[in-house]
């Protein structure tokens, strides 16, 4: 039996970029003590208070089908939060609840892409982007952001690819680079979208993990609300990665059409998870700050450790829960570095190449293990890098 071309081409004939993560899982199953610095999964887990609310809601009967676009109360809670943080008028008709940001990214593209449309995204990018865009029927087009520009994309680079394109996907704070797009970068992006009539899809899942600068949502820029679709979730902000809960914010007609997509695909999100999401959001920003704090601290630790040597260079991270290291001085590619590091030292990091050509020669380290473990792994990683300096 023949599978569809579409499913077989999700990875564009290449890999999905998660090989090191998968290799680490095999080693762990074999009983090896691998230090996992790959995926963005918090070491603290979801708070007991949120879990209690989930359990309470399930026991109280929220175990049946939940309202398809999201419960009224959760949509209202999200709308209020988005309006308060962005200043853009937002009502429940602007909010669709989805099972995580990943589902939101797919839905947003599905809403605007016709089969074969070119969909732009910035490189370096979150590893799933090209596959997600292909799943929605798009031809993904990577627009490089450059290290020498702090990985802030340039309007000229986007404009060069914009003719005939349908959409642009951005992500600030950025995974993997940690770049937080400045006001001028966002305004330039908005300008290109207006000039070339592009939908702008803004992935803001690291909105509350910012160490330098401010989060700017492009939906709040003049004339941008109607063409911007924002994707967000509680995965990173509330350490709820496994609960699969997020949202899409857009103009009401977009949300109305997307509700049809949800009806015919996921059929909504678990009721007790939605109830826990309401509870989590109502705890206020101090909870998000507490969830973000270990990453802020560990970023400081990494700055200190990297400053002690001059083989690996730190890409200055302004936000998100990772740091990227430029390891080109070792003469190894990011892939070679990550492969050797896991086999020889049982330390799993992501090769930059998993995040696009613009991140080649780098590795990404997730700051998701306790400080002493991170320090130990980083020291061993740096010794490994130094040993490759001949
Ligand atoms: N977008 C970015 C930039 C991410 O890094 C991730 C997860 O790591 C996601 C989206 C997916 O998040 P979620 O767990 O909400 O699906």
Total of helices: 13
Helicity level, as a percent range? 40-55%
Low-confidence stretches: none
Main beta sheet: strand number and arrangement?
7 strands, mixed
Overall structural class, as computed from helix and strand content, comes to: alpha/beta
Ligand roster: pyridoxal-5'-phosphate
Cα distance, first to last residue?
Answer: 52 Å
Based on the coordinates given, report the CATH architecture of the largest domain.
3-Layer(aba) Sandwich
Strand percentage: 15-25%
| Assigned CATH class of the largest domain | Alpha Beta
* Strand element count: 12
Radius of gyration: 21 Å
| CATH homology group of the largest domain | Type I PLP-dependent aspartate aminotransferase-like (Major domain)
Along the chain, the helix and strand elements come as HHEHHEHEHEHEHEEEHHHEEHEEH
- Biggest sheet strand order reads 2-8-7-6-5-3-4
What is the total number of structural domains?
2
- Please state the overall shape, judged from the principal axes of the Cα atoms: globular
According to CATH, the fold-level topology of the largest domain is Aspartate Aminotransferase, domain 2
Q: How confident is the prediction overall: mean pLDDT?
A: 96
């Amino acid at each position: 039996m023949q599978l569809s071309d579409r499913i077989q081409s999700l990875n564009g004939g290449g890999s999905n970029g998660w090989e090191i993560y998968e290799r680490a899982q095999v080693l762990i199953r074999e009983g090896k003590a691998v230090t996992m610095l790959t995926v963005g999964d918090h070491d603290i887990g979801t708070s007991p208070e949120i879990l209690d609310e989930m359990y309470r809601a399930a026991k109280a009967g929220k175990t049946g089908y939940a309202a398809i676009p999201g419960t009224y109360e959760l949509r209202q809670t999200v709308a209020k939060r988005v309006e308060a943080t962005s200043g853009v008028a937002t009502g429940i008709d602007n909010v669709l609840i989805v099972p995580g940001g990943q589902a939101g990214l797919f839905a947003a593209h599905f809403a605007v892409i016709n089969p074969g449309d070119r969909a732009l995204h910035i490189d370096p990018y979150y590893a799933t982007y090209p596959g997600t865009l292909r799943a929605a029927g798009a031809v993904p087009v990577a627009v490089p952001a450059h290290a020498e520009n702090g990985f802030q994309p340039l309007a000229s680079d986007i404009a060069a690819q914009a003719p005939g394109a349908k959409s642009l996907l951005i992500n600030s704070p950025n995974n993997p680079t940690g770049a937080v797009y400045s006001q001028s970068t966002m305004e330039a992006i908005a300008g290109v979208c207006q000039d070339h009539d592009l939908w702008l899809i803004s992935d803001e899942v690291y909105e509350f993990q910012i160490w330098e600068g401010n989060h700017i949502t492009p939906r709040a820029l003049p004339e941008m609300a109607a063409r911007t679709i924002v994707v967000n979730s509680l995965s990173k902000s509330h350490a709820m990665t496994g609960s699969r809960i997020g949202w899409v914010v857009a103009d009401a007609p977009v949300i109305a059409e997307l509700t049809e997509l949800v009806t015919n695909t996921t059929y909504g999100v678990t009721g007790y998870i939605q109830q826990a999401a309401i509870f989590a959001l109502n705890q206020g920003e101090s909870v998000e700050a507490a969830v973000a704090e270990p990453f802020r601290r560990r970023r400081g630790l990494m700055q200190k450790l990297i400053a002690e040597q001059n083989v690996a260079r730190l890409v200055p991270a302004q936000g998100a829960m990772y740091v990227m290291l430029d390891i080109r001085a070792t003469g190894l590619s990011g892939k070679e570095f990550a492969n050797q590091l896991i086999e020889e030292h049982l330390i799993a990091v992501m090769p930059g190449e998993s995040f696009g050509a613009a991140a080649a020669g780098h590795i990404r380290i997730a700051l998701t293990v306790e400080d002493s473990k991170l320090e130990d792994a980083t020291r061993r990683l740096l010794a490994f890098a130094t040993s490759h300096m001949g």
